[in-house]
Specification:
The protein is an all-alpha fold. The protein is built from 6 helices and no strands. The N and C termini lie far apart (115 Å).
Length: 194
C-alpha cells in the first residue's frame, strides 16, 4: 500500500514542481514568451521616442529662419519617419511571430484553447497590438497636423504674392509640383527686377 501511494506522488512531482518556486507545469513556462514581449515593448518605446522627436522637430521648423536650417530639419524629420516605419514593420512581424508561437503552444498538454496560459498569451499580444495601433494613430494625427499647417503656410504665401485667396486645387498643385517652396522667392525676384 505504501508503494502505491508513494508512486502516485513521485509521478506528480515529475510533471510539475513547487508552485511557490515560480516554476509551472511542463509546457506552460512563459519565460521565452515574456522575453519576446519585452523586446516588443522596447520597440514600442523606441517608436514613442521617434514620435516625440518628430513633434519637437516640427515645432523647431516654425521658429527656424534660414532655409538651410529648415532643410536640415526636414531631412531629419524624413529620417525619423523612415525609422518609425521600419520599427512599426518590425513590431508587426514580431507580433505575428508571437501569434504563431501562441498557436503552437496551444498544441501542448495543459495549454489548449481557454487555458490560463492561452488566455495570458492572447491578452498580452492583443494589448501590444492595441498599443501599436495607438502609436500609428498618433503618427497619422501628427502627419495630418503638419500637412494642414503647411497648406496654411502655402495659402498665406499665395495671398501675399497675388492678393487673392487660393482655393484648395491651387494649393495642392503648388505643393505637388514643389513650387510652394519657390513661389514666394520667384515673386520677390520679379519685384526686385521691376
Amino acid at each position: 500500500m505504501n508503494n502505491l501511494i508513494s508512486s502516485s506522488f513521485s509521478r506528480h512531482s515529475e510533471n510539475s514542481t513547487d508552485v511557490e518556486m515560480g516554476v509551472t507545469i511542463t509546457g506552460v513556462n512563459l519565460d521565452k514568451f515574456f522575453q519576446d514581449v519585452e523586446t516588443v515593448k522596447e520597440d514600442l518605446n523606441d517608436l514613442h521616442d521617434l514620435h516625440t522627436k518628430l513633434r519637437s522637430a516640427h515645432e523647431e521648423t516654425k521658429t527656424a529662419h534660414t532655409a538651410g536650417s529648415v532643410k536640415e530639419l526636414r531631412s531629419r524629420m524624413d529620417r525619423d519617419v523612415g525609422q518609425a516605419l521600419k520599427k512599426a514593420k518590425l513590431i508587426k512581424v514580431r507580433l505575428e511571430a508571437l501569434d504563431r508561437s501562441n498557436a503552437a503552444n496551444r498544441n501542448q498538454d495543459g495549454c489548449g484553447p481557454g487555458s490560463s496560459s492561452d488566455r495570458t498569451r492572447t491578452s498580452v499580444v492583443g494589448g501590444l497590438r492595441k498599443k501599436l495601433v495607438g502609436k500609428m494613430e498618433e503618427f497619422q494625427e501628427l502627419r495630418e497636423k503638419i500637412n494642414g499647417e503647411y497648406k496654411e503656410t502655402v495659402e498665406r504665401r499665395y495671398f501675399t504674392v497675388t492678393g487673392e485667396k487660393a482655393d484648395d486645387h491651387i494649393v495642392d498643385v503648388l505643393i505637388s509640383t514643389g513650387e510652394s517652396e519657390t513661389f514666394l522667392q520667384k515673386a520677390i525676384q520679379q519685384q526686385v527686377f521691376f
